[in-house]
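Workshop exercise sheet. Pairs work together: one partner reads the sequence aloud, the other fills in the structure field after running the prediction. Swap roles for the next sheet.
Pair: D.N. / O.F.
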Amino acid sequence: MQINTVQQLSSPVSERLLNAQQVAERLGVSERWVRDHATRRAPRLPVVKLGPLVRFRIADVNDFVERQRDDHSGTGRRK
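Structure field:
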């Protein structure tokens, strides 16, 4: 049984990946800030590497923003 190669490639990626400029526009920050957070240890913005290209999943960007929320409660519940 042979699986269609196009199906294999399109299955895992159900959304379009963003470049650093698009992420910067969504977050209201500079492209340099996005690239910095894509390479730092913490807080790190998850990336998808495609050879020399760096791309971002929308879900990962949204999760990153949620993890950075500060509820000002002083309980230190950051993950």
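Discussion prompt: Residues 58-68 form the longest helix (11 residues). What would you look at next?
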